[in-house]
Specification:
By secondary structure, the protein is an alpha/beta fold. It has a single domain, classed as Alpha-Beta Barrel (TIM Barrel). The chain has 13 helices and eight strands. It has an eight-stranded parallel sheet with strand order 1-8-7-6-5-4-3-2. The chain starts with 15 loop residues before the first helix and ends in a 6-residue tail after the last helix.
């Protein structure tokens, strides 16, 4: 059972659905990539051992994303499932890792309750693609379901406000995950990750899969990961036209194109020497969107009724702030949003030295 000393959110008080109906929800994702960049997580296996090895680093990132405008502290249990822990020979850490991530999330969410004119951040449990699901039954479906059941049970016991089930490239696997969340009695946000072919690996189009998931009872359906703003937006539009429930849109912040629709397929524009010749996942920096591109995506999505917005793998606090500001928010981090008027060379403030200002054309 959960530790009664751990602060928890109050279920039903300005919860997920209330906020979606009001002015939407910003949810920061992208813990895998950001913690890898910071030196607390290994690329490749991508197992979130940081929860136990460096909890202070994870808690700080939780805080930074909330400071930047995230309404949600998503417990970092992505890839914190039995298959991933088996891969590194540490299945005994499964439960403490999951509970630890959730408790740290609650601690940060509790801090937000004291912020002036703010509302407490929501805490989300998280489940994801198992990497062992196959529609032909090569892996027993009950084993896949059991992986979801244990993670969702811990999320519910630790009083998560809702559960995010994400990055599914099989509609069938997403349906199993959703069924488990619904049986647990908490709201479900279910997001799919669309491969370069434009369809899920079991043949569903993103829109048809979204329709199935909405009919199964998902409160929010949509897309996350794999695709950047340019190649995820057309699919989001199709989903918006196909379902009446709330829509989620969480692209990766990379400049994917029609020729290279996912970040797995992006080439290095500089032709630099990369191990294996593939930028994904450790040499994607030259392919990043800027914050204004991310803001434009958020504005466009919000204008067509998408109310659950965020950024996935590759996210950083400045992107989350860009999303929040794009939909009319003023998060705490907005105190430090760019103001070039006082820049020594490009500023317009009349108190700046005029001789120095003239140098701007020579820089």
């Amino acid at each position: 059972m959960s530790d009664p000393t751990v602060p928890v959110t109050t279920a039903g008080t300005r919860g997920l659905l209330d906020r979606l109906e009001d002015n939407g929800v910003v949810c920061a994702e992208g813990y895998l990539f950001e913690l890898e960049r910071r030196g607390y997580l290994q690329a490749g296996a991508f197992v979130p051992e940081v929860v136990l090895d460096h909890p202070e680093a994870l808690k700080q990132l939780y805080r930074e994303f909330v400071h930047a405008g995230s309404d949600v502290v998503e417990a970092f249990t992505y890839y914190g499932h039995r298959e991933k822990l088996r891969l590194i020979g540490k299945e005994q850490l499964l439960e403490p890792l999951n509970r630890g991530a959730l408790r740290l999330a609650h601690e940060v969410a509790a801090e937000t309750a004291a912020q002036p004119a703010g509302q407490r951040a929501l805490v989300a449990g998280n489940i994801c693609n198992t990497n062992v699901y196959h529609p032909d039954g090569k892996a027993p479906l009950q084993a896949v379901r059991a992986m979801f059941e244990e993670q969702v049970a811990w999320a519910v016991e630790e009083k998560a406000d809702f559960v995010i089930a994400e990055t599914f490239y099989f509609c069938g696997e997403a349906r199993i995950a959703l069924a488990v969340v619904k049986e647990a009695g908490v709201p479900a946000v279910v997001t799919l990750a669309v491969p370069a072919t434009g369809t899920l690996l079991d043949g569903y189009s993103p829109a048809s899969a979204a329709m199935v998931l909405a009919a199964d009872g998902a409160e929010v359906v949509g897309l996350n990961c794999f695709r950047g703003p340019a190649t995820i937006m057309p699919l989001i539009k199709e989903i918006r036209e196909s379902v009446s429930c709330h829509i989620a849109a969480l692209p990766v912040p990379y400049r994917t194109t029609n020729d290279h629709p996912t970040f797995f397929t992006l080439p290095d524009p500089g032709g630099s020497a990369i191990p294996g010749g593939r930028p994904f996942p450790t040499a994607l920096e030259p392919l990043l969107c800027n914050r204004y591109e991310v803001a434009r995506f958020a504005q466009e999505a919000y204008a067509m009724g998408v109310r659950y917005l965020g950024v996935c793998c590759g996210n950083a606090p400045h992107y989350t702030r860009a999303v929040a500001e794009a939909i009319g928010r003023t998060p705490a981090a907005s105190e430090y949003s760019p103001d070039m008027s006082k820049h020594f060379a490009f500023g317009t403030d009349p108190s700046l030295d005029s001789q120095t200002l003239r140098l701007s054309s020579q820089l």
